[in-house]
Amino acid sequence: MNINTPRLRTNSSSKKWRTNLQLGAGLVAVSFLAASCSGGPTGSSGSTESGAGAAKPASSITSIDYFTDATSSAAFQKVLSTCATKTGIKINRQSLPLKELLPKVLQGASSGTMPNLAFVDNVNVQQLAQTGALTPISNYGFDLSGFAPGIVAATTLNGKNYGVSPAINTLALFYNKDMFAAAGLKPPTTWDELKTDAAALKTPNRYGLALSAPASEEGTWQFLPFFWSNGGDLTNLTSPKSVEALSFITSLVKDGSMSQSVVNWAQADVADQFIAGNTAMMINGPWNISKIDKSGKVKYGIVPIPAPKAGATLTVPLGGEVGVIPVSGGSTQAAAAKVLKCMTDNDQMLQWAMGNTRIAPRDTTAKQEIVKLPVLAPFAETVRTSRARTTGLGLKYPVISQALWTAIQSALTGTETPEAALKTAQTTVDSSAK
Amino acid sequence: MTVRELDTYDATDLRKGARRRTNSRNRWIHTVVGTVIVAFLLFPLYWMINASFQQSGALLSPHPSFLPSPVTLDGYKATLTTQGGNLRSSIIISLGTVLITLVLSTPAAYALAKLKVPRSTTLMFVVITVQMVPGIVMANALYVVFARLGLIDSYVGLMFADATTAVPFAILIMRAFMQDIPSELIEAAKIDGAGEIGVFRHIVIPVSRNVIITAGLFAFLHGWSDFLFAVTLTTGSVFTPVTVGIYRFMGAQTADWNGVMATATIASIPAVFLLILAQKYISAGITGGAVKE
Amino acid sequence: MIMRDKTVQARAGRPTPPRTRWRRRRYLVALGFILPAALYIVVFFGYPLVYNLAMSFQDYTPRSFYTGEAPFVGLDNYRKILSSPIFQPAVLHTIVFTVGSIVFQFGIGLALAVYFNRRFPLSNLLRAMLLLPWLLPLIVSSAIWRWMFDKDFGVINYFIRLLPGVDTGAPWLTNGKWALAAVVIANIWIGIPFNMVILYGGLQGIAETIYEAAKLDGASAWQCFRYMTWPLLKPVTLVVLMLGLVYTIKVFDVIMGLTGGGPANQTQTLTTWSYQYSFSLFQFGPGAAVSSLLALVAAIIALFYLRSLRRSSDGS
């Protein structure tokens, strides 16, 4: 039984068009209203060069970092707490995964809620500085003498320095002492030795070498010691030296000494492989030391990454976090600077570098660290001459890096020859140039 | 039938929603086959539990141990001592998401299904297409608004944010089911003097119990497993949902997988209980059927 | 509304004020039912949608987040992505990924729903357990699958190598085609519960009696399914497929967790590509352009779905 009155069918299609348009316009209007009420620069103190040093420091600041795992987080918290007590400034800390850090900083930028102190990956400093959101550290009178030149270069844009690093790191070669002893080998110092050692150490149950080559910054980062030491240049990916470096790595996969699965392994996975005894050597960083020690499964040694030839200079990439001070107003900026100064003074820098098994950027502090933690010596030696990835490239680096990690994957999986892969990479970079 | 009688409308007459009977001998065979199927499909879960009892990376080996050996309880120790509060937060957020989703979606779904809403097709179109906004874009936009409104680190704020993944889905699915509610039921109730709201309360909701619970289930899962909004809209100083808390075991270059897997395993437990509970309700359903006599 | 009523009046030749009032109240009630959800959607989705669309026409860089300045560049971003050598592969991968996922998610989900529609001991528990894949945080599921698919040390190849006559495992994540298969398989696994639960709910709504009648006539199980269950499930099937399409196109975490879009862009889909543009290259304009294209695809799917709804409602 239908108790409704019959509905008249009006000319529905044109009416529908009109009403849809009205609805759409209404939606857009509401949204723009909402949009205009947010976003855009908030009236920050405007000038980035105001007499920030003259302002009285605020009593509390917000800080953000990416040290989420239990060990690093505890070590970082210790330094923060010490500095909070020393400076009398309360620190509200937030830590999130590295991948979420930059989006969070950008969200903060667009809503005027940037943290007062942020610890970002050194690769991102120039990008952030270019936005205008960071204050130059010259405002606050930091003394960077004795800092590794690489980290100073990484944080410099247009002649101004935008951050201070509490700890840096780089890559080295870890090797399994028992496996080497059993094979009667000594750790390699040149590429040829690396190749023969890796081949000799390969058995049906394990590989000779493992490094990390995923589709991310880690892939580029792990390849750079080979790339740069051979004379490769990030602005010219197709140069013979560049191709040589990629060919070398590819040959390790081709002759079976390195697993093709490295294209799926993050550095954490490579470390797990090494600890499990699935690989005799690995290229990795100092953050693994406590993990390997705790597992108690591997007697390991660390040596610098082999250079292309005997006597050639080894150039390794610079890694590490940088403390930056976004624009937030004179008093909070001054407070953040005070905290950052405390964190990068000799004692706190030593404390943090040791607690997190990274290297102190200041040479005098690093020397003290090596005395206490000699296992870090290979890293400390090479990191002094390490090169920052963004040096001279600034905002172009992300495109180049992505092209390069794609080329590495392409070559390692045999999709293209190293030469062709790098050609593709260079084409990608060139076509991206605005 | 009066409205009261409809309230206690019993399904057994029509035997709709009853499940296929199988004779006793076959029943146990089905149990065995069913278990094998489930075991096969859930192998990755077993792998996760396996990993939670072993050292990080132990499963990546030419001869993986199918039974954890040696057994490590480190992950569980760490999880139980640190993630308890996070689990509680996640449950609160998930239940809140369910509430918000159902309160918003159920009437809307009914309206779109049965009431003559103007421009309903346009609304349906909007409901479907808004789901295509990438999560990160939503997170960016919501952060800006929430920051302005001071809703960062608020349980309710996060519930509303998580509901964005559940509401469109709930509307669509409940509408699809509610369309099949026989008009006779509704007309009969109206004849007895029930208003629209009365019909909704006494007919539509009981009859749609299945699909409401299904929608609630999905809302719960969205709230439970959400990471993006959780990490964007909280600072960790008030509460931390377990999806973010899991990063206690993951650093920028390191990962303690057995801790991660232990957290995931333990986090599954309360959710599994709720799933089993919900399944009971879905299976004992009343009409929602597509059959017109 | 009022216009219609007046015309009705004119036709009927007598005034109908109570009906008008009644109609208006019904209209307001319907509005009341739908307003909370509509408001919610406008507030929570309207801004991000417009924001994203606007971004696709701008040169949006990290600087824009801070200064709010983002010069309008018209269709440049769209031109850029359409002419990129990654565009076609990304589209192809998206199609393969989506179709592959949906066909098997739906098929397996349906088979499971039908199978577990019977009553036997433990069926409730087993059915609840089948929801577990959906429960896990994606970071965990993608890690598990990544381990399982590892070419040398993964358990899947371990089983494959156990097969007689098989020497090496499959190059799951290191070969382009196999990597795509791997992400599809992982995604199928994650998506089965979704399909199963909804289809199961649909099956629940089909009366037992019709099967008994058919059995008396000698219909086989397959015939029951094909001629009775399947057509009756059509509305549910449509909504599941449509939603499945929309959700699968959006899949991001699984692919990123398993392959990161690699090796060498061979599992790059439109969604992962969009994310890479925005957060690896910091070019938010092209990133927004890609996701706006996806929204367009979803809009087209939505139109098809709505048209099919109208057709079926006209039919009955």
Task: Considering the chains and any ligands shown, give keywords for the structure.
heterotrimer, A: 434 residues, alpha/beta, D-Maltodextrin-Binding Protein, domain 2, five-stranded mixed sheet, globular, B: 293 residues, mainly alpha, MetI-like fold, 2 domains, disordered C terminus
Characterize the structure shown:
The complex is a heterotrimer of chains A (434), B (293) and C (316). Chain A has 17 helices and eleven strands. In chain A, strands 2-1-3-11-6 form a five-stranded mixed sheet. Chain A has two domains: 52-170 and 318-383, D-Maltodextrin-Binding Protein, domain 2 (3-Layer(aba) Sandwich); 175-315 and 393-432, D-Maltodextrin-Binding Protein, domain 2 (3-Layer(aba) Sandwich). In chain A, helix 2 crosses helix 12, helix 13 (346-355) packs across helix 14 (363-372) and helix 16 (397-412) packs antiparallel against helix 17. Chain A is α/β, with parallel strands linked by helices. Chain B has two domains: 19-72, no CATH class; 82-283, MetI-like fold. Mean pLDDT of chain B is 84; it is low at 1-18 and 284-293. Chain C has helices at residues 2-12, 17-55, 62-67, 76-82, 87-115, 123-129, 132-135, 138-148, 155-162, 176-204, 208-216, 221-232, 234-249, 253-258, 270-279, 284-315. The model of chain C is unreliable at 1-10 (pLDDT under 50). With 316 residues, chain C is mostly helical. The two termini of chain C are 26 Å apart. Chain C has a domain at 87-283: Orthogonal Bundle (MetI-like fold), CATH 1.10.3720. Chains B and C meet through helix 2, helix 3, helix 5, helix 6 and helix 7 of B and helix 2, helix 6, helix 7, helix 8 and helix 10 of C.
